Amino acid sequence: MNTSFDLTLQIVLTVLAGISAQVLAAYLKLPSIILLLIFGVSLGPDGIGLLNPKMLGVGLEVIVSLCVALILFEGGLSLELREVGKVSGSLRNLITLGTFITLLGGGMAAHWLGEFPWPIAFLYASLVVVTGPTVVTPLLRQVKVERKVGTLLEGEGVLIDPVGAILAVVVLDIILSGDTGLTFIVPGLLLRLSVGAAIGGLGGVLLGFFLKRAQFLSEELRNLVVLAGLWGLFGLAQSVRGESGLMAAVTAGIVVRSLSIPDERLLRRFKGQLTIFSVSVLFVLLAADLSIASVFELGRGSLLTVLALMLLIRPLNVWLCTWDSDLTWKQKTFLSWISPRGIVSASVASLFAILLTERGITGGDSIKALVFLTIMMTVLIQGLTARWLAQLLGLTSDSATGVVIVGCNPLGLMIGRLFKDRGESVVIIDTDEEACRSAEAEGFRVYISSALDANVLEDAGLSSIGTFLAITNNGEVNSVVADRAAAEFQPPRVFAVLPRETDTNNKPTSRDALLLPRLSVKTWNSYIKDNRYERGEIQLTQSQLEAQRDRLNKLIRNGDMIPLALQRDEKLDLALVNSDWRAGDRLTYLLHDPTPQLLKRLSGGRSPSRLAVEPLTKADKAAATAETAASTTVKTMAGAAAATAAAVDSPAEAGTDADGSEPNETGQGSDQNGADQNPSQNPSAVAADPQIDP
């Protein structure tokens, strides 16, 4: 068996083990790093002995460096700059003051609890300053935490990685050189950060402008150009100043993202796939090189060191860095708990262990073991409890508010007003410029563009909004747009309005994630334009719940009613599909008003009532008299019109409705002349309009 075959077999086994661990983690819904560590240790020399990373020699260091650079570039490329700007103050503090707090606190804990010498203790602390996007991002995706908290954790993970890695190098230089003055520490750190930021920033600008102008490049070649450019910038920075390459990688990713290059979404997807591959390979290799005996030799003091890092130092760090922010105590509590360590800590610790051993300095294996113990404990404990804690604190994205509406039509605008009136964010997307300008004048945030453009959906803030609604006249467009939104942005609630007759049972799309209300958007838009509707609210009660459900569902099945929104526990959600309505819910609905226009003119006109609680008997009577309305003759209608005209006496006193009319005490609207629309005082109107209950 020759050496080349041995190396090939090592790489093949590493890739197979890494991807298998990722697949199993996805199936079990566990943090992938846990299984990657288990697979690596099991296959390593302390396990069954199939993997021996030492066979790679210096190649291991090369693989680690290039993969970490790729991981950090992808992290910078994925940063939501608009969202980061909202938490920039807290993020800045976590990167600067937070780094110092963790370095100082971690060093003291490792020395006093773990009984490490001061130099080794502070080297350990510098290695665990970082958190890392490779652990945080998948964790947040599983937890679905609200966007503000998620952005802060992701931003910290991306930006603190190069800072922590460079800090660790500076601390190592101090240990090796024996120079402990601040004049050595601060300039060394700032110089590497500055060189990396300058090279990464300039290179990112050049790379971004090239991609914008090189329209002849195919998608595949464009992605590879970015990969080559990234590694080129990393190598250049490393050659100018050692260990500045990581900062160059992060900066380049942030700059390329800010330039909005063509097909940026596809580039991020490609880099995301490479990142998963890199993390899988690195963790298996590094875990296989870990000595299990060295972990058990650490003793109870090292366990207490990690617990102090999790339970004392991290909370102190977060609360001091966010004391003057607008974060709530619940958000700060969640931030205090989530700080899993990842690939940067593991890779740098492994390289440092090798270097310290080569220099004859004891403690290299112990530091590596303690860092891996920190990774295992933080990922396992925090990863398994993060979702429970987020739900306990009410910080999951299921509670996210706001709505993105595709379709600037009367029905879409009416739904948008319900959310806008509650102070929630409403974004409307449509290609109809005139309709969008009108909506913009009404105070809506609009995008005059196709919703099939993922960049538009991203700019609309879909990643942080609770509801997505596609409600154009074209059901197929609604379906395609909603599929894309669900697949790429994972908002908690995705609605695609389909025509009533549509059959989607056999279509192979991701519809399991979609809510598919069935209604004729075109028909209801016509009703709204022609003022042939009544809008109201109904309070569901425990004593009548089943009867209320039956009556409402009958109206919905007949196409005479649309449930617009449901208010439950002070939270407003769309209710376009039949849901599990409960006692105490307040349902806002649209009811079709079939009164002929001639009768409306003769009776002085009808205006939709303002949002007010109406008795259920209105809906009940509408359902019960639907057949009567269908059989009403022209003669009867004419007689009703005459009776209505005779019944109009004097204006009713009330406040102004949405269109200038006034609701009376029963919640019914009044016409523009002030005539009372209460059917109990106008029996002929009831005969002509059976949808309205006396």
UniProtKB/TrEMBL annotation:
Keywords: Antiport, Cell membrane, Ion transport, Membrane, Transmembrane, Transmembrane helix, Transport. Residues 403-497 form the RCK N-terminal domain. It is found in: Cell membrane. The chain crosses the membrane at residues 55-73, 94-114, 120-140, 152-177, 189-211, 223-240, 246-262, 274-296, 334-357, 369-390. One of its GO terms (molecular function) is antiporter activity. Residues 12-390 form the Cation/H+ exchanger transmembrane domain. One of its GO terms (biological process) is potassium ion transport. It is a multi-pass membrane protein. Residues 663-684 have a biased composition (Polar residues). One of its GO terms (cellular component) is plasma membrane. It comes from the Bacteria. Residues 639-694 are annotated as: Disordered. Residues 639-654 have a biased composition (Low complexity). Pfam families: Na_H_Exchanger, TrkA_N. This is Cation:proton antiporter. It comes from Vasconcelosia minhoensis LEGE 07310.
